[in-house]
Design goal:
Pfam families: 2OG-FeII_Oxy (PF03171), DIOX_N (PF14226). This protein is of the alpha+beta class. Helix content is 31%, strand content 18%. 44% of the residues are buried. The structure holds 2-oxoglutaric acid and fe (ii) ion.
């Protein structure tokens, strides 16, 4: 699993270079670094983040993931997320569609709710395998602590870039108010089902929430850059997280921030023979927050809306938006291509469906 024991990322596949943002400089309110963040968040909506302070905890979370995924399937299935649009818990490989034809996904993951971690040992939403509980204090809570700090600093910087009154975005993401925020540990075993390597193991999507903080060791994550019809890999760089903007921030910002489409395929080259792990923290707004542009709070956003045909007013709460997207990816809820369309977010273009 560690970078030293798996083959290097090949140099003959299409990759997309991301800007590297230094977290410590953002924290110190360095003007040039904040400009770099502005560029990344408004153009591709993806960037590398270095000096985030989570690296050692990420390794411990991957060890936890390994122990969880090695549990017998029937034990993991006791914690299955179900078909009602709930995200927290276990999802077996093949439980979701990756496209409108209903092709099955090939990743398994465990999602652990921020609310459940903060309220532990009292569950807010649900319980988890005992391996998670056993490492709650030593590993899960410390990782969440770093992730929440990173999110709070980045949300603060984006808040100011959008010309919002101080604390506006923070007030939409309050710890202790129920939300879809979660840690996600994903395993993709080497492809054995004869599917070609470029068949997505996790279908093309935009992220559902506000900001994502992603860690991976092997390649497989790809972005589709606007104006380009070739999917490009994001090459993992040791010690660097990948951050990206999700639908909620795109909508709050009236489209100023970009929520870009991405997917996961088999790792490239020799890496394809190895298990691929990824770990994410997904920050999402409080469930009751309505997803609409914050034009009444920022002249910058109001101005962006004037020049846009989209009014960014979904009339939907963050909780409902999130549940809908989860629910209609589930293969058990599939009636036809319309189910996949019902699971789409801001990336949805009828002509591309
Ligand atoms: O595994 C990855 O690298 C990306 C996962 C992802 O995009 C997601 O879970 O939303
Ligand atoms: Fe994603």
């Amino acid at each position: 699993m560690s970078p030293s024991t798996s083959p290097p990322f090949p140099d003959d596949v299409p990759t997309h270079p991301l800007l590297i943002v230094d977290f410590k400089l953002i924290e110190a309110k360095d003007t040039l670094e904040i400009e770099k963040l502005r560029h990344a968040a408004t153009n591709l909506g993806f960037w590398y983040l270095k000096n985030h302070g989570a690296e050692e905890l990420v390794d411990r979370m991957f060890d936890l993931g390994d122990d969880i995924m090695n549990l017998p399937l029937d034990e993991k299935m006791e914690y299955e997320q179900g078909d009602t649009g709930r995200s927290f818990g276990y999802k077996a490989s093949g439980a979701n569609a990756v496209d409108e034809d209903g092709t099955l996904d090939s990743v398994e993951f465990l999602n652990i709710s921020k609310d459940d971690i903060l309220s532990y040992p009292t569950p807010t939403h649900r319980t988890y395998p005992s391996i998670v509980n056993d490492r709650m204090n030593s590993t899960v809570q410390p990782f969440l602590g770093v992730a929440l700090h990173v999110m709070q600093v980045l949300l603060g910087a984006l808040n100011d870039l959008l010309g919002l009154p101080s604390g506006t975005l923070a007030a939409l993401h309050v710890d202790g108010e129920a939300s879809g925020s979660e840690i996600k540990i994903i395993k993709k075993a080497p492809q054995t089902n004869g599917l070609p390597d470029d068949k997505p193991s996790l279908g093309a999507h935009t992220d559902f929430g506000s900001l994502s903080f992603l860690h991976n060791r092997l390649g497989g994550l790809q972005v589709l850059v606007q104006g380009n019809d070739v999917w490009q890999y994001i090459k993992p760089i040791p010690g660097h997280a990948v951050c990206n903007i999700g639908d909620a921030l795109k909508i709050f910002s009236g489209g100023i921030l970009r929520s870009n489409i991405h997917r996961v395929v088999a790792p490239p080259g020799e890496q394809r023979k190895y298990d691929r792990w990824s770990l994410g923290y997904f920050a999402r707004p409080t469930n009751t927050v309505i997803l609409r542009a914050l034009e009444d709070k920022s002249s910058v956003i109001a101005e962006a809306l004037k020049n846009s045909s989209d009014k960014f007013d979904t009339n939907t709460s963050a909780g409902d938006w999130f549940a809908r997207r989860i629910k209609y990816q589930r293969i058990n809820n599939r009636t036809g291509p319309e189910s996949w369309r019902a699971s789409r977010g801001t990336e949805f273009k009828p002509e591309a469906a």
